[in-house]
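Practice problem: predict the structure.
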Amino acid sequence: MHTLRITQPDDWHLHLRDGDALDTTVPHTARHFGRAIVMPNLKPPIANVEMALDYRQRILEVVPEGMPFSPLMTLYLTDKLSVSEIAKAQENEFIHAIKYYPAGATTNSENGVTDINAVMPVLEEMARLGLPLLIHGEVTDADIDIFDREEKFIDTILSPLLDRIPELKIVLEHITTSQAVQFVSEQNTNIAATITPHHLLYNRNDLLAGGVRPHFYCLPILKRDIHQKALGDAAISGNSRFFLGTDSAPHARHTKETDCGCAGIYSAAGAIELYTEFFDQQNALDKLEGFASHFGADFYGLPRNTAELVLEKKAWSMPQEFRFGDYTVVPMRAGEEVEWSVTEVTP
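Answer:
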């Protein structure tokens, strides 16, 4: 198959940053994706409805003309987020979820949850209202190996949480392990997971073998190939509780190429093409539309997009970098070929 037509996809996990960076990040996503769940880990964090609506407006101001892109906003779950703010979020048509970062887990997560018991009233209210909780599923204990943090989180935090509030609607974000795949597969329909293009296409050898490659450094960190295979099997399985979420997370080049580099991979510049490349490698192009365009919308209770995307197996070269405010950002697959191209977006 050399041409593929699918319903326009959505990105169910995206970092756009703020300020001048939006001039690059928003068009890269808006050109191919109809909607995106926008992460709230700015400085200061997007911690109430008013801040989320202001941020949404800043995003909309840089959406290129003719691209009907809709940012789906989230609030940052802090120890101080109130039950009353949850009610306001549920009532607002532009707020679609609450994001859980364990304190210290990733970029700008210092305001995250320090103790899950401290936010239990909020989680109980979310369950009552049906508002989804999006989870960065890693523990941050210094004595836990970085490659084991996701599995430990599932065992010690997530499983007990579901025992306590089984009706809570949860997306376990950017899963990276076979244990996460198994866990989600065994749960009820309230639990889903997103999978990134980098965790499908790469493993920890790409980060570490032959030298450290800072632009492959992300959190959760790339795992060994057996976990990469488990993620791939889940993505092409047709199971509707696994769907697309890029976790595209841009950082300026100089903050990646340093002695303590930032975690994050910028994939938005070629995201759907890279997913298509993976599905093609697996001889599973017939499974791409469900994963990319149907399952996420269904889980969030939103209508599927009506526009369509046409992809062709026609290689192109990813630029080495893009402008990122006053700096530059290095994209995933920089300077290399991407095997598939988007040739048309039809309304």
